[in-house]
Write a structure and sequence with these properties.
The complex is a heterodimer. By secondary structure, chain A is of the alpha+beta class. Chain A contains 4 helices and 11 strands. Chain A folds into 2 domains: 91 residues, Urease, subunit A; 96 residues, Urease, subunit B (Ribbon). In chain A, the strands form 4 sheets. Chain A has a 4-stranded antiparallel beta sheet, with no helix packed on it. Chain A has a two-stranded antiparallel ribbon with strand order 1-2. In chain A, a hairpin with a 2-residue loop joins strand 1 and strand 2. Chain A is elongated and about 80 Å long. The termini of chain A are far apart. The mean pLDDT of chain A is 96. By secondary structure, chain B is of the alpha/beta class. Chain B has 2 domains: 124 residues, Urease, subunit C, domain 1, CATH 2.30.40.10; 300 residues, Alpha-Beta Barrel (TIM Barrel), CATH 3.20.20.140. Helices cover 23% and strands 22% of the residues of chain B. In chain B, the strands form 5 sheets. In chain B, strands 3, 4, 5, 6, 9, 10, 19, 20, 21 and 22 form a 10-stranded mixed beta sheet that branches. In chain B, strands 11, 12, 13, 14, 15, 16, 17, 18, 23 and 24 form a 10-stranded parallel beta sheet that branches. In chain B, helix 6 runs parallel beside helix 7 and helix 11 runs antiparallel to helix 12. Chain B starts with a helix and ends in a 17-residue tail after the last strand. Classes of the chains: A alpha+beta, B alpha/beta. Strand 3 of chain A pairs antiparallel with strand 1 of chain B.
Chain lengths: 225, 563
């Protein structure tokens, strides 16, 4: 058979799936490994039958019903990844089983809402004068963002977007977007990015030197219209 | 992104995990903890990935790892017997924990504790729990696969009594010990080996000491007489090593009081103190609650269940060279199985009297079950917190104290008992980075990743030919740290101060402070008192009060997880 390690692993899924199936047929409700095996096998066998990728997802999702599962198990079946051999090659399928459990293992309950932390911000208008979409993330030194964004760069010296970490703001071409900026914190040292500052922000000539560099490299600046 | 989308991203539990004030149910237990603290700044979290904050000049500082760290585990829910329950990040340098707290770049972020460099490796810990690696002080390494089982359950340190299918209950042969330490270097696991202390004179103990044992084991199957107890303890006092004791279940020479006289107030680790695993019948549990006796349990009697007694009869006969066809053997075995002492043992754990749990792997316990059984036991004494909003957040009955008590039993307390606490047992700056990462839903049942001396060494691996690392079937097994010469580099041999001519294949560290350790110093435990047992073994009291518990019909962390 010349089975590869991946193929041998599929046989483990098959064994586990058959075991789970026999338990289901005895009227038992299934636990997490049993349910994962049955869902994974359903995907693999659908692909073997010639199903398309979306048909294999349907097969995985419909392999089990919530009432086939022990309480709490359905919530543990999110994001089951399995690779199946389709007619056009091996493909990754991810099954997000819909949970109906209101109580489940590992549940996080949040009874206290978060306080909103208000920071003094500077509001500016930004226009993307290129023909491509541009996105800017929370912790980027805003003064040094894409030269094709037009805004008052002097107001963005040592500033970043006032948005949650890991999020971003989109600047579609030729649209003016209002954004809020807040000061970069910590020791206020900006190193890297486009190399416009490359040092401590709070020096007497830091801003003027940075503006000179921006001008030299042709960054768009000034109030957009 | 719209403001409401931004806000949702900020609050999303699947993105950032639990936050301070959140309640987290551990696995399918009744244990609900409240996160005490979050070292992150809300809205300015260090996050790895596409479009996230952990990029050069933002969250990453462009410095060498000597000024930052080799590895950081970010924004993970720490549960530690000493540090408590909080969301934090753990920096690791040269295999040890170098910093704990808020991660990131101090150039651009406030109050950074863990400087993350542009070359620092990152394990995102959002949505995961981190604990110290488990310490199992009672392992019969009768099969090499016991190491696989231990690592697969989140145990990173074992105290072994054999390394093969022979009668050991402690190894004293210098020739055998030399090979034993070399064998264990195949696994990324810390190992100490106990010498056989059932010896009436010191020369066999001296041979074992020179060959690198970390402690001694006295076992009734090889002799637990007053003379051997005294010989072992006086030798141990001279050389700062621990003594583990399995007392005389026959009461052949002395009863429990005679054994206590032989111990004479010296520190001793009382193995499976309930007695099913062996020891003075029916009252060995009376050893618990005394300051100089460090009592531990083995996992089959924990989370006391309705089938515990029936299982033990078969187990005793099978494990101790007995024969089920011999009526005298069956009678002896039956003397060891008592529901009342099992029911009391579990309660004494909850009260903080018994400070340590262990496995007795392959010798009447399960190498991969101690985390599970310890927390299933914690769960059996807990009522589920009411979290439907009818109880004010500050009034919710949480299990933080109970969880911190029980995690001490499998981490810091066994480390203290065996003199390992200078290296392992807790998540603290300076200690070896032996850590287990768990999903909230699988906590104490199945770890996602075991980190040994800062390197991913064991854990969940998927289909090896897949496009992603998490494709089914997901198996728990070796990670890169278990391969090549690295496994030996990552593990520590726990030895003694007087050992000589040891293998240099692994790091050798002498145990310390094993003679001064006392039960009253056990973390989140230390309750002392008088345990009394009736002559029939059917009534147990602690300081005059009846101690018992109801056997479980259903244990948590079990049916939902194991195929």
């Amino acid at each position: 058979m010349e089975l590869t390690p991946s193929e041998q692993d599929r046989l483990l899924l098959f064994s586990a799936g058959q075991l789970a199936k026999s338990r289901l047929e005895r009227g038992l409700k299934l636990n997490k490994p049993e349910a994962v095996a049955i869902i994974s096998n359903a995907v693999i066998e659908a692909a073997r039958d010639g199903a398309s990728h979306s048909e294999a997802i349907t097969a995985g999702l419909s392999a089990l019903k919530n009432e086939d599962l022990l309480p709490g198990v359905s919530a543990m079946l999110n994001g089951i990844a399995v690779e199946a051999v389709f007619n056009d090659g091996r493909r990754l399928v991810v099954i997000n089983f819909k949970s109906t459990d209101s109580d489940y293992p590992g549940k996080v309950t949040r009874l206290t809402p978060f306080p909103v932390i208000e920071k003094d911000s500077t509001k500016i208008k930004v226009k993307n004068e290129s023909n491509l979409p541009i996105s800017v993330t929370s912790h980027m030194h805003f003064m040094e963002v894409n030269p094709k964004l037009r805004f008052k760069r002097e107001l963005a010296y040592g500033m970043r977007l006032n948005i949650p970490s890991g999020t971003h703001i989109d600047f579609p071409p030729n649209v003016i977007v209002d954004v809020e900026l807040i000061p970069i914190e910590g020791d206020r040292v900006v190193i890297g990015f486009a190399g416009i500052v490359d040092g401590n922000l709070d020096t007497p000539d830091g801003l003027s030197k940075a503006l000179e560099k921006l001008k030299h490299f042709g960054y768009l600046t000034g109030e957009p219209s | 992104m719209k403001p409401e989308e931004l806000r949702a991203a900020q609050e999303d539990i699947s993105v950032h995990g639990a936050r301070a004030g959140d309640f987290v149910r551990l696995g399918d237990t009744n244990l609900v903890i409240r996160v005490e603290k979050d070292d992150r700044e809300f809205g300015s979290e260090f996050q790895m990935g596409f479009g996230k904050s952990a990029r050069d000049g933002m969250g990453l500082k462009s410095v060498n790892t000597s000024q930052s760290c080799d590895l950081v585990i970010t924004n993970v829910l720490l549960i530690d017997a000493i540090a408590g329950i909080k969301v934090t990040s753990i920096g690791i340098r040269d295999g040890r924990i170098s910093a704990i707290g808020r991660p990131g770049n101090p150039d651009t972020m406030n109050n950074i504790d863990v400087v993350v460099g542009s070359g620092t490796l990152v394990i995102p810990g959002e949505g995961l729990i981190v604990t110290a690696g488990g310490i199992d002080t009672h392992v019969h390494a009768l099969s090499p696969r016991v190491c696989d089982a231990a690592l697969s359950s989140g145990v990173t340190t074992i105290i072994a009594q054999e390394f093969g299918p022979f009668w050991g209950v402690g190894v004293s042969s210098a020739w055998a010990l030399k090979h034993g330490f070399e064998m264990f270097s195949a696994w990324p696991i810390n190992v100490g080996i106990l010498g056989r202390a059932s010896s009436s004179t010191k020369p066999p103990l001296q041979e074992a000491l020179s060959a690198g044992i970390c402690g001694l084991k006295i076992h009734e199957d090889t002799g637990a007489h007053p003379r051997t107890i005294d010989t072992a303890l006086s030798f141990a006092e001279e050389h700062d090593i621990a003594v583990a004791l399995h007392t005389d279940g026959l009461n052949e020479m002395v009863d429990i009081n005679g054994t206590l006289s032989a111990i004479a107030g010296r520190a001793v680790h009382a193995f499976h103190v309930e007695g099913c695993g062996g020891g003075h019948a029916p009252n060995v549990l009376q050893l618990a609650g005394r300051d100089h006796i460090l009592a531990s349990s083995t996992n089959p009697t924990l989370a006391y269940g309705i089938n515990a007694a029936d299982e033990h009869l078969a187990m005793i006969i099978s494990a101790h060279g007995m024969n089920a066809d011999l009526p005298s053997d069956v009678a002896l075995a039956k003397n060891r199985v008592r529901n009342a002492t099992m029911a009391a043992e579990n309660r004494l754990h909850d009260l903080g009297v018994i400070p340590v749990t262990s496995s007795d792997a392959l010798g009447m316990g399960r190498a991969d079950d101690t985390w599970r059984k310890t927390f299933a036991m914690a769960s059996m004494f807990s009522d589920r917190a009411i979290l439907d909003g009818t109880v004010a957040p500050a009034e919710v009955q949480i299990s933080n104290e109970r969880v911190l008590r029980h995690i001490a039993k499998i981490t810091i307390n066994p480390a203290l008992v065996h003199g390992l606490a200078g290296e392992v047992g807790s998540v603290q700056v300076g200690l070896v980075a032996d850590l287990a990462l768990w999903r909230y839903s699988d906590f104490a049942s199945k770890p996602q990743l075991v980190i040994k001396s800062g390197i991913p060494a064991w854990g969940v691996v998927g289909d090896p030919g897949a496009t992603v690392k998490d494709a089914q079937p997901l198996l728990i097994g070796p990670q890169f740290g278990a391969y090549g010469a690295t496994a030996a580099d990552l593990g520590i041999n726990f030895i003694n101060k007087s050992a000589s001519n040891l293998s240099a294949r692994r790091k050798n560290v002498a145990v310390a402070n094993t003679r001064s350790v006392r039960s009253s110093q056990m973390i989140n435990h230390g309750v002392l008192g008088e345990v009394e047992i009736s002559a029939k073994g059917d009534v147990v009291t602690f300081n005059g009060e009846l101690v018992s518990s109801e056997p479980l019909k259903n244990s948590s962390l079990t049916r939902l997880y194991l195929i």
